[in-house]
Design brief:
alpha+beta; Aminopeptidase; single chain; 6 helices; 173 residues
Length: 173
Amino acid sequence: MNVKLKIEELENEVIFLRQTLREDFEDLYKQGGHQMIWEQHSEKDRYKKDKFLEYFNSGIKNEFGSLTIINKKNNKIVGWTRLYDFKEEDLSVKLGYTFLGKDYWGSNINYNVKKLILDYVFSFLNTVYFDVYEKNIRSQKSVMKLGGILNKINSNKHEYILTKKEWSKWDSN
């Protein structure tokens, strides 16, 4: 089952997701190297190239890799996301570390990313969690739009939960 969480690629008519390659760094940094993107995150200086490189490398080393988000409209890299912290005992995983270039905020890109991944993982898992920094209001709203419910608050993080049952009810609306 663990092996299924290293998604090689997923796509729909809007986006293409594939495992991140080292050569994606510059294109991802072009999207993520802006202070505004990180102003609500716990690591506000992630827009600096050395800090972004640390973030990038942690994603590459992640057990399930990371997914580069490509906008099919212009075939450009627009952001990335990843799965992490799989728990076999309750068939759950966390979805996060997502960012989109600011030109894509308010578009349908984030929804399509999450829908592709959620549809896929809920074919064999029961629960997806999202850890969101307490001051990251944009991401909290985004998770709630997907049907995520605040589960608990741990120090400076809000944990949202989305179950397969809730997703199937919400996604069919």
